[in-house]
Amino acid sequence: MKKFLTLLGATAMLLFGVQSFAQSEPQVVFTEEVETVVTVRGVHHVNRTVTVEDPDGERVIIKVPDESQNLYQIQPGDKFRVRFAQAVAVGLLSPGEEPSAGVGEAMQLAPKGATPGGVMVRVVQISGKIVAIDYASRTIIVRGPAGNLREFVVSETVQRFENLMVGDVVGLQVTEALAMEMIKQ
């Protein structure tokens, strides 16, 4: 499944394009991946939602895409292996470039009658101005084109983080992938 996620993520980036950043330094990329097993606690067929619970007892409602043909197979008590991955690319933009935003999505779902599951990928491209940096905790806060603020934690593996400055206009490409696979019991 990991190879599939990597392939689908790369495909999504090609399909939706990679934001072109100015060649000035720094350009940083950081990733996060979480895998767990969740238990289905409720299924609402009319609204196409499934309530799942993680091992810590936290419940989340998942909207099942209209394209999914196997919702009828899911029952309370079913277990799903879930993997969430996020990759963020950050680069400085050319001076004077205005903040902007764009979104693209792709999904691959199990065929009708197969074990329920699938992969959904969402790519968000946004540019904005860094309004705060905490070098000690490795976080940046960016103001987007609509004026909203979003905080990003930058991995220790990212080099040149210390070169970012408040006021820099950065381009961000956030790729999020969610893979779910029913565990047969």
Description of the molecule:
8% of the residues lie in helices and 51% in strands. The chain is mainly β. The chain has one domain. Strands 1, 2, 3, 4, 5, 6, 7, 8 and 9 form a nine-stranded antiparallel β-sheet that branches. Strand 5 (101-109) and strand 6 form a beta hairpin. The longest helix has 15 residues, at 2-16. The radius of gyration is 19 Å and the shape is elongated. Mean pLDDT is 78; it is low at 1-26.
Q: How would you briefly describe this protein structure?
A:
The protein has 185 residues and is mainly beta.
Any chance you could write out the topology, listing elements then pairs?
Blueprint: H1 2-16, E1 27-44, E2 49-53, E3 59-63, E4 79-92, E5 101-109, E6 117-134, E7 139-143, E8 149-153, E9 169-183
Antiparallel strand pairs: 1-2, 1-4, 2-3, 4-9, 5-6, 6-7, 6-9, 7-8
Characteristics of this structure?
nine-stranded antiparallel beta sheet, disordered N terminus, 1 helix, 51% strand, 185 residues, mainly beta
